[in-house]
Amino acid sequence: MKTQWILVGLMGVGLAFTLSSFLGIFEKRVDYNTQVKPLLNKNCIACHGGVKKASGFSLLFKQEALAPAKSGKPAIIPGDADASEMIRRLTLTDPDERMPLDHPALKPDEIELLRNWIDQGAEWGDHWAYQPVQKPDVPKIGTFLSRLGITHDEETDWAKNEIDHFVLDKLKQNELKPSPEADRATLIRRVSLDLTGLPPTEKEATDFINDNDPNAYEKVVDRLLQSPAYGERWTGMWLDLARYADTKGYERDPGRKIWRYRDWLIKAFNADKPFDQFTVEQLAGDLLPKPTDDQLVATGFHRNTMTNDEGGTQDEEFRTAAVIDRVNTTWDVFQGTTFGCVQCHSHPYDPFTNEEYYKYLAFFNNTRDEDVTSDTPTLRFLKPADSTRLATLQQYIRQSVANPKQAQTTVDQVTHLVRTIEPKINSHDFDQYVNASLLDAKYFGFQDKGSCRIKQVTLTGRPRMLIRWGTKAENATVTLHQDRLDGPVLATIPTPKPGKDTVQMIPLPAVQGRHNLYLSLNSTKKPKEWVQIKWVAFAPILPGQPQNTLGEQDKLLSDLLNADAEQTPILLDGSGDLFRETHVFERGNWLVKGKLVKPDVPNSLPKMTTELPKNRLGLARWMVSRDQPLTARVAVNRFWEQLFGTGIVETVEDMGTQGIPPTHRELLDYLAADFMDTDHWSVKKLLKKLVMSATYRQQSTASPELLAKDPYNKLLARGPRVRLSSEAVHDQALAVSGLLSHKLYGPSVMPIQPDGIWQSPYDGETWKQSTGEDLHRRALYTYWKRTAPYPSMVTFDSPSREFCQLRRLRTNTPLQALVTLNDPVYVEAAQHLAEYMHQHGQSPSQQIQAGFKRLMLREVSPKKLAVLVRLYQTTEQYYQKQPGQAENLLDRPGMDCSAISPQLAALTVTANTMMNLDEVVTKE
Prior knowledge:
Elements: H1 2-23, H2 32-43, H3 62-65, H4 85-91, H5 108-119, H6 144-147, H7 154-158, H8 162-173, H9 184-196, H10 202-210, H11 216-226, H12 228-241, H13 259-270, H14 275-284, H15 293-298, H16 315-335, H17 354-361, E1 378-381, H18 384-400, H19 404-420, E2 425-426, E3 431-439, E4 443-458, E5 464-471, E6 477-482, E7 489-494, E8 502-507, E9 514-522, E10 531-539, H20 552-562, E11 566-569, E12 582-585, E13 593-597, H21 616-623, H22 631-644, H23 665-677, H24 683-692, H25 694-697, H26 704-709, E14 722-723, H27 726-737, H28 791-795, H29 814-822, H30 824-839, H31 844-856, H32 862-881, H33 883-890, H34 902-915, E15 922-923
Antiparallel strand pairs: 1-11, 2-10, 3-4, 4-9, 4-10, 5-8, 5-10, 6-7, 6-9, 12-13, 14-15
Helix pairs in contact: 2-5, 9-10, 9-11, 11-24, 12-13, 14-21, 18-19, 18-20, 22-23, 22-24, 27-30, 29-30, 30-31, 30-34, 31-32, 31-34, 32-34, 33-34
């Protein structure tokens, strides 16, 4: 009996193995993300995806791929490749039917891969970047005893933190070993340039080299993270993302004062503002409860969009362009995804539909900026005397309203009005013109017997009209009518005295409801003179003020609205009468509005929770929620790229299916999870973790064998070696020459720039060279004109900042050498470095050693020293034979003419040459 059961068992096992083999249970599963999706993207999506759906068949989404095509039958039948039309069409020989049409046929192994995928059930999968961030296990390295600290092992001895475990694991898979740690002089220069954008001083380098404390390097890192220069360095990176400039862009490219946003960034990085809060304040600081000035200034991130106030342009067109730019920039910067193409059609490669683009756009579509010349809305910074007057008005309101809560609400409303002059109706929205025009395509203007309509204004509880206007006409009056041009008169208003524009407050009778309002002009004395109106607003009456005339507090409020104040552009949302609906743009055309949509996020990403409001604040909080898969990954990858020269995902701008796959995906997810869960979005903790790793500390030199096996250092078997950014090249030259100003904050400056760069035919603006220490401030403070950026920085790959720049592509051109050899900034730096060299050596050899050590923190090699000494001697002989040439090279304001000599001129040329060396403009 026992034997029979054994035979039955063996037969069952055999049958199970036969069935399992038949069913493919033990067959290697085809992975959709890594094997199938790249194949479909390369060969099929162009005709069967977001842009086109030939024969009604799309491979972009699972439900579309498995749905019946135009023929009425599905092209993919999960579990049955032989019955699937897709496989049949791939294997045909007739070129008119074989797919892909008009392209080479798929290879047999590629077709077999697709066949196996369908037979296994045609399982779909989310791209790795759209999957939740889960913290992977840290790979084990070394031996069991070395991990316990009992014995030594080269792997455990080398590794400094978890980053190194992931890197070592990948190196072992590729039969590679890490490089030794860089020497201390190289290491402190590398980490100083990375964390602060400035080289260390000789003293800082010497102190580190001589410090025998095991924590010596960590002390250097901590000091650098606390340096004010840290915030400046990382702000420089962020300005590219924020497309920051001191001008508005487009053809006229006039000035814009938004430097307070740059200063906010510096303070935010130095204070280590958590990255989630940093994100929320930039995207929606104005929607936070009782936003502070800093939180309002932070929204300047999305006020850096270009505006076009040239005559003849249509404001709504460029307002829409700015909103679209905000959508695309938000995705570029925080989501690392090419969302912009979804404006016209569903994404051809990633799971985003055309309609989802406009649902997302709806979050931004109610911002109050409308491409007006004044750049409103702005936050006004009152002068001390006006701030005191505002405090007096606030105190009056608190004393006049019995209910403290109601009093505070009124104070907040009045303060908001004074500080932002919002909400208001811009005059380009007026319509039904009679003898009127939009002057220079900017502001409404009318002449005698002219009129216009202001559409649908809510007057309930708003019996004060504010109007900003100006004219050269005399004794003219404007009449405000209700509902129609000959309707009830609400006010008759004398135009202001000829002169600059002014804000007037007009008392109105109490009117309920929403009405069309009409303005008509009577100007018989100078009928051809224009009366120009910039905006109107309707406000509640201040407590205790008369209904039909202006009281003392009304006049105080008017004075505050007219007060001269510094301003910076901010975001504010419109509501009520100013609320906009959002429609899908047919084929991306803003003039052809389709389906009405409400704010929402793409279906392929986690949904917004019910607690989050459907506005920019809710969106920003959704973006930094724990289950959002992209924000932390993108941030970590960007900071990694800044330190290592290349991101873990090289295409920092695209983590989607068309981006380059990550070299160390598990490491990226580990760092992203740690960034959110352990470090609580602390950028300083993240950066410290990166620079403390043994991976970062490796020497950058590589053997021929290593270069052959990993030429681009994707496996991280050596340290980073990359050309310095344009800002770092500039700032290093000023620092080593002793010229650098460490002044923080303030308006942008205009350092030395060659003549003829600026061409401003419209407004006659010129480059007004700064004086004093403003001549030698860090590069991020340089005035940035989009149509004529600072030339030396553009030569070193800075963008024009017309749009968001996610990654600077480094170039190596002769023009860069010409800049560091000839640009006045670098020549002046060389002059001062030469004076330092002259004071720190008796012989040319000693002087050159002193200069090189100041530059590179180490002795110059004998071979290189011999070349530099020969250069010095040849140049000295030249200047001795040409005595006037030394004066031409060295003469500058403040220079002691008696100090000019052939020797100093030769030292200047030598210093200039050293500052142009590849190793000097490179981080090694």
